[in-house]
Amino acid sequence: MSEDKWYAGLPEDMHAQVEKFDTVEDLAKGYANAESMIGSSVRIPSEDAEPGQWDQFKEKLRDVPGITMMPSGEDEQGWSDLYGTLGRPGEATGYEIDDSVFADLAHANNLTTSQARNLYEAYTGAETLKNEQRQIEMTGLMESLKEEWGAAFDQNGRRAQQAVEYLDKKIKAKGELTQALHEPGMGDHPLLIKALAAIGEMLGEKQIAATDTTNVFGVAPGEAKERAMAIIGDLKDAYHDAGHPNHQSRIDHVRRLMEIAHPE
């Protein structure tokens, strides 16, 4: 007859749990080890646990590698320390990004150094691509405008510039309008240039020298003569109609153009 197992006297439903132990002494050692592990483990308190139990639980968590306790909502220094631990530099200059506005914004939003740099590279890359695409588009539109205007391209360009100078004086911008429209992306769109050229043409006919003895646009003598002769040659112009309300202003206009054409 085979020797009975040491746990033969235990209820049969417990045999599977203890049969891995060869002796009672092995079972006792296993129980002692389990108790030791349970004693050093971090157990989550129940929902109805006392505040002191939760404090003990938090204190144990502080010693667990890789675990960082979240500060309270009012603990500004605690949050600052936490973001510093995660990788946010102490000052915005710590990002070593040339754009100080972007760096300040990144620091205010507690970005880590790697997050800020990656975001900045993505942003500047997108802006560069956008500018390149716009430049290609504007170049194509400008080529179309050159084809449309043909030999009159330079003349219309001067008219557009004259319109800007006139409007700048009209609104007393003291050159700021002219400067603003010279900024990239502001005054280089062909549609705007066409509009300004049209304004310049209208102003050249009606405003250039009706009452002012100053050459508002700096029109060259040759162009001034060309404009004057065009008006004189157009029999439908108010210049030839004494009953037209603009008859006198057109006469004055032509006179001023001729003065510009023959300044001596």
Could you provide a short overview of the structure?
The protein is mostly helical and 264 residues long. It has helices spanning 15-18, 24-40, 51-62, 76-86, 100-108, 113-149, 153-170, 176-181, 190-206, 221-233, 247-261. It is rod-shaped.
Which structural class is indicated by helix and strand composition? Answer: mainly alpha
Describe the biggest sheet? none
Number of distinct helices: 11
Mean of residue pLDDT?
A: 79
Unreliably modeled segments: 208-217
Radius of gyration: 43 Å
Q: What general outline do the C-alpha atoms trace?
A: rod-shaped
Percent of residues in β-strands: under 5%
H/E series, N to C? HHHHHHHHHHH
Percent range for helical residues?
A: 55-70%
- How widely separated are the two ends? 143 Å
Based on DSSP secondary structure assignment, what is the total number of beta strands?
Answer: 0
Which key terms come to mind for this protein?
mainly alpha, 11 helices, 264 residues
